[in-house]
Amino acid sequence: MRRNAINEEHHQLQKALKFVTTRRAAVLLGISEEELRRISHESGFGRTEMAGGEEDTYFTYEELRQICVLAVNTVH
After folding, report:
1. What's the pLDDT tens digit per position in 22-31?
2. CA dihedral 14, 16, 18, 21 (to 10 degrees)
3. From CA 33, how far away is CA 25, in angstroms rounded?
4. How does DSSP assign the chain, residue by residue?
5. Tens-digit pLDDT profile for residues 23-75
6. 13 in a domain, yes or no?
7. Edge-to-edge strand list for the sheet holding 19-21
8. pTM of the model
9. Looking at residue 48, what is its pLDDT?
10. Is 8 inside a domain boundary?
């Protein structure tokens, strides 16, 4: 029974590590949270959810990569 609990904890941790908050994503991308929200709104990237009575947008690492590609293509 203890092994199942450990496996479940591991699964939840792996699931949590697949997503990045708006604040962390902005830091990783080197842009402001406001700019990231604008890009998210325009591109449709990110998933907005309620957590603890607060709303935040979460991004996958693949979405962050695609935002980087969009930013590079926009600049050039």
Report:
1. 999 999 999 9
2. -160
3. 8
4. -HHHHHHHHHHHHHHHTTEEEHHHHHHHHTS-HHHHHHHHHHH--SEEEEETTEEEEEEEHHHHHHHHHHHHHHH-
5. 999 999 999 999 999 999 999 999 998 878 889 999 999 999 999 888 777 65
6. no
7. 19-21, 54-60, 47-51
8. 0.70
9. 92
10. no
Classify each residue of 33-50 as buried b or exposed e, where b means 16 or more C-beta atoms within 10 Å of its C-beta: eeebeebbeeeebbeeee
Tokens representing 70 are 């969009």
Domain containing 27: what range? 19-75
Q: How many domains does the chain have?
A: 1
Task: Tell me the CATH number at 29.
Answer: 1.10.1660
Asked whether 65 and 20 are in contact (CB, 8 A), the reply is: no
